[in-house]
Amino acid sequence: MPTRQPELRVSPDLAAAERLSDHFRTVRNRTEALAAPVSAEDAQVQSMPDVSPTKWHLAHTSWFFETFVLRDFDPGYDPADPRFAYLFNSYYDGEGDRQPRPDRGLITRPTLDEVRAYRARVTDRLSALLDAAETRDHWPQLAALVELGCHHEEQHQELILTDIKHVLAQNPFAPAYAAPYPKRVASAPDHRFVAFDGGAVEIGHDPDAPGFHYDNEGPRHTQMLTPFALGSRPITNGEYLAFIEDGGYRTPGPWLSDGWATVCAEGWRHPLYWRETGDGWQQFTLRGLQPINWDEPVCHLSFYEADAYASWAGARLPWEAELEVATAAARHDDANDLGSGRLHPAVAEDHGTGGSSGHGLAQLAGDVWEWTRSAYSPYPRFAPHAGTVGEYNGKFMCNQYVLRGGSCATPPGHWRPTYRNFFPAGARWQFSGLRLAKDL
């Protein structure tokens, strides 16, 4: 039987034009608020090939709406500038040639002010379209694409923060993106393992459940898990320091072969943004250079580093299904995501044997994306969405690993327990950390 392509449909709570229009403007306004502290000079810099300039993010998210919504559903719309289709396409081969990703920082024109004007033009035109389109036959398809575009823009909101953090970290004076945040004096609860029975479990997005999901979160299917245990919280900076002091970066023992080769080639000696100074260990944050809080979750680790730590600790990284089972059974109304305003991982609270997690696991949502041992590959009977938007996820299912749980930079409401983030094994510039697992 051929695999059926999933239907792109709008969430029930956004099916009304007024609610979808309000949501669209909320998302667009948040992007502009996140970019507001960034100067025109900051917004132009591309500090490595994986980082995109803030100006490019502002333009690309507008190009997405212009290309996949306004072009097809607003007959009277003329593109702001035909050249933008080349400059601000990311990876959609179906939309033609594009600026190479490592060269996005070379796009000095249009200026930042011109990009902001482009954003305003797209926002206003799409808002007007939404106000007039609910009674038309194509409304379900249009609404679904607008919701997809909003979630796409929320992904870029997190990237705006992680990318500008990398940009500012290259400045020898470590300038801050945001003002200092009130410090919370607390100690992380003791680390322990929480057991799960395993067995046949259902994972992936439930097609009968309300709410948005990406195509890579389905189809829902059965998976067998052997009994396992998960760490009660993510690993802290202090626990990771013990790995460093035990020669973790000086011996190949705990490392995968590719990981050790990367450590040697790149000269890694500690997590990205850590600095050993005359005043002790410090780390660069979005609020500037700060003394390391040893009780906060360690972050900006690659998959290689997370896996090496787990091996050194006599454990392993979780499989993504294990984390989904644990996460689906928990509440996440206290998650430290972008909505908290902290912009940095927080010290875990002690959930004991229950609490809001339901099983004693802390920080399953927010704070740090948690690396898993699962390769990013399709679920059984996976099929991408039809058309060019089908390039969104499926074509990247090679040479990447899955991360779960969201981070302190993930927009509120964007993440869900079935969410599958993915990055190459050497990526370090995201808010990525680790939770231990073991077999029982």
Describe what this molecule looks like in 3D.
The protein is an alpha+beta fold. The protein is 30% helix and 12% strand. It is built from nine helices and twelve strands. The protein has helices at residues 17-35, 54-73, 84-87, 112-133, 139-169, 237-245, 257-266, 303-312, 320-328; strands spanning 193-196, 199-203, 221-225, 228-231, 274-277, 280-285, 288-291, 369-375, 401-404, 421-423, 432-433, 437-439. A four-stranded mixed sheet has the order 10-9-8-11. A three-stranded antiparallel sheet has the order 1-4-12, with helices on one face. It is globular and about 65 Å long.
Quick recap:
The chain is of the alpha+beta class and 440 residues long.
Which descriptors would you attach to this protein?
three-stranded antiparallel beta sheet, 30% helix, single chain, 12 strands, alpha+beta, four-stranded mixed beta sheet, 440 residues
